[in-house]
Every structure is written in structure tokens, then in C-alpha cells.
Amino acid sequence: MHKINIAILGSGGREHALEWKLRQSPRAERIWMLPGNGATENNVSITMSDHAAIRRFCEENHVSLLVVGPEVPLSEGIVDAFADSRVKVFGPDKAGARLESSKIYAKSFMRKYGVATADFGVYSPEEDASACIAKNKGDVVIKYDGLAAGKGVYVCSSEEEAHAAIRDLLEKYGPQAEFLIEEKLQGEELSVIGITDGKNITCLLPSQDHKAAFDGDTGPNTGGMGAYCPAPAATEKVLDAIDEQIILPTLNGIEAEGFDYKGVIYFGIMLTEKGPKLLEYNVRFGDPETEVILPALNSDLLELMLACFNGSLCEIEPDFSEEYFVDVVLCAGGYPGKYEKGMPVRGIADLLADTLCFHAGTQRDGDRLLTSGGRVLNIVCHDAELRKAVEKCYAEVQKIHFDTLRYRRDIAHRALRRRP
Ligand code: AMP
Ligand code: GLY
Fold first, then answer.
1. What is the pLDDT of residues 312-367, one digit of tens each?
2. Residue 313: which residues within 8 A CB-CB, separation 6 or more?
3. Whether the CB of 100 sits within 6 Å of ligand 2
4. Is the pLDDT assigned to residue 307 strictly greater than 80?
5. 221 domain residue, yes or no
6. Which domain holds residue 51?
7. In what helix (H) or strand (E) does residue 136 lie, and over which residues does it extend?
8. Above 70 in pLDDT, residue 209?
């Protein structure tokens, strides 16, 4: 078997989970983390925006596959920067990455290719949005066009709120900023994440994230406070509708637009009374969804990734665990606002052998492990019963200590309500 060297770009829990999963492949030789974190091995300190340095590193170290974790390097064209290199880069080119980096582009793409989504209009400060806001009685969602790490979306319930959102948006992103006004949808959210070669797609298990900071889905939006899979909300009927009304038209669009797209496509979906509607695309693995969907995948992830480059993706039938996987994110107090860093982390060695611990914001300091971010650790447990997986996870969480540690206590609450 021909073994290959791999590099993974990024430093969060998603990238730690990618390292963990790819390391299990019999085809993986060396794996470098650019730059990695306190748990990952072979960390190389490199600037993520320096595509030329990343390319040099990969070529000098005979890397065959570069897996790009976060969206920013993709939106800055890292795939294009390797266009004439023998290094394969897993991710879409810059044109394809606009599906995530520009919400206006993404919505226009959805409209053009008939993807089920909320109605919308595009506005700029010169255009008066008052009529649209009044027509909807303020029940609208206002979104900044560009990448905003989840902070550019305002879900409003009154006209005052909607006008205040626009003022805030223009203050934050500049007086010329373009924005979207969308119909406000109601329903449960679902993340469907697939691996695509630009024509075919292999979806991993449907999962659910918990974006709000506090229990009961209250408080400010975060990068994600926990996840679980498979999400029972995704019945076969729901998944068929998602396939037909969202995934297939998207693939048609990707092909028709001629994107060079060998990577991940993430569908952020809302399950409404009128069927599933696409809220957003991401062009990379979701975080923290990845920390549950990769452990739940029995198949070789590296084979799936490489299949995108040699046209054999549809020949691989993926195999999934029968169990539920639950991830509770441990974060530093204050996150997603101001929080402290550099606090010693203790207790990881006490976790059961079966528990997974993916680091998100840690760094090594000699023998010590210190926090280095808002989201610090992901504790992942599994069981044939979702409730037991959740219980195991919270029992394991008790073993971890760092100053100001905080987490949500209701991960998977929607599914647990469904399945008493
Ligand atoms: P987005 O980054 O576009 O996925 O938006 C972030 C979050 O805002 C989503 O996860 C939803 O919770 C909420 N959201 C976005 N669009 C809508 C919509 N049209 N209706 C209701 N909620 C929305
Ligand atoms: N979990 C949502 C995201 O990765 O954007």
C-alpha cells in the first residue's frame, strides 16, 4: 500500500479530530499540524495566511494531501495557490469558497439553482429597508454579507430591533456594508456535512450543534457549545427531502459554475413546517460537529478524501457506527466575550479510555497544559442510547478542571425531549 504524508491546516478541536481520524488510516505516513495545538503532534509554527510558506513546507516535506480546516484560508484562495503543485488540497477553490464567504453570493446561488431557502432581499445603506421590515412586522433576519464568525447575523422580532440591527451592522462593518434581509424561519436546526468531488457527495451522519452560549439556547452566539449525532430529527423522510431540495440542486450548481471543489460542503438547515430550508453553506467541516461525526464514521476518512481526487468517491459505501456520539465543549468563563488564557488544565489523564478529548484552545508549556482560547476542550462519549451517552459525557466532564471552566448542561436536549 502506498502511504502518504499529510498536513492539516488549523488549530482547533476540528483539526485535532481530523488528526485523530486520519492517523487511523493505514495509508497515513506522517501527519503535520499547521500550527496545531496543545494535544496535536508534529506541530509546525506557520502563518495560516502565508500560502507561499505553506506550499513550500508541503513540497519540501513531500506532503501529498493538505487538509484545510478553517474557512479563511479557503476564502483567501489557498486551493488556487496550489493549482500547479503536485500537492492535493482538500477544499474548494476561491470561487467555490464564496458559498461561505459571501452570504449574498450564497443566496443568489441558491435562488439560481432552486435550492430551498428563506426569501431574501439584498440591501445597502442607500436603499431603504424600512418597507421590507414593516411588511414583515420586524420578523426578519439581517445578515452581513462577509465572514463574521457567527457575529454578523441578527435574528429580529420587532421593527425597532431590526433597525437597531442595521445600525449596529453598519457601525461594525462600515457605512457601505451590504446586507441581506431574510424571511425569519422557525424550526429545529440540523447540520448535514458531506465530502464532495464537485459532482458526487458522500454525507456523514446528520448532527446538531448548540450555538447559543447558555442552557435553553439563550445568550449570545458562540462557535458552538456542543454537538451530537446522529440527530433523530433527521428521519429518512427529512433526509430524502434535503437530498432532493437542497443537496442535489447545490451539486448541479457547483458543477455548472465550474468550481474546483474537492472538499467538504456543510449544509446548515432549518426544518420548517414547509420542509427543510437551507440557512447557510460552509465550505469546511463544522466545529464542533466534526468532533462527533468523525468518531461515528467507521470508514477510512483518508480513502474518502483521496477518492475525491481520483473520481472514485461514488464507489465507496461509507460505514457508520450504530451508536450516538455526544460532545460537550468546555470553555473559559466569559466566552464568547472576554476571557482569560494561560490557565493550567488538569484531569485529562483521569478520563476513561473510551472517552475522547479533542483540544480546541490549549497549548503546551513544558509539562503543563494551558488554556489558550475560549473553547478549550471537547469531551466526547458514545453509547447505544443517546441518554446514556449524554450522562457518560457529563460524568467525564466532572474530572476536568481549569479556572473559570464553564459548559452547557443541556447538550442534546432537543433529541432527549423527542426520545424520552
Ligand atoms: P447563519 O450564519 O446564516 O447560519 O446564521 C446563524 C444562525 O442564525 C443560524 O444558525 C440560525 O439560528 C439563525 N438564522 C439564520 N437565518 C435564519 C432565518 N432565515 N430564520 C431564522 N433563523 C435564522
Ligand atoms: N458549528 C458551526 C460551524 O462550524 O460554523
1. 999 999 999 999 999 999 999 999 999 999 999 999 999 999 999 999 999 999 99
2. 195, 196, 197, 200, 201, 202, 304, 307
3. no
4. yes
5. no
6. 4-91
7. none
8. yes
**End-of-domain residue from the set 167, 183, 199:** 183
pLDDT digits (tens, 9 = 90+) for 92-117: 999 999 999 999 999 999 999 999 99
202 within some domain: no
Mutate to test the pocket of ligand 2, among 287, 290, 292 (most ligand atoms within 8 A of CB): 287
Mutate to test the pocket of ligand 2, among 18, 99, 266, 270 (most ligand atoms within 8 A of CB): 266
Question: How many Å separate Cα 199 from the centre of its chain?
Answer: 21
Structure-block grid coordinates of residue 104: 449574498
Extract the C-alpha cell encoding 4: 502518504
Q: Residue 243: phi, psi to the nearest 5? A: -60, -50
Tell me the CB-side half-sphere exposure of residue 308, using CA atoms within 13 A.
Answer: 25
Residue 317 has φ and ψ, to the nearest 5°, of -95, 110
Residue 420 in this model has a pLDDT that exceeds 60: no
The three cell numbers locating residue 86: 503536485
In this prediction, residue 150 carries a pLDDT of: 66
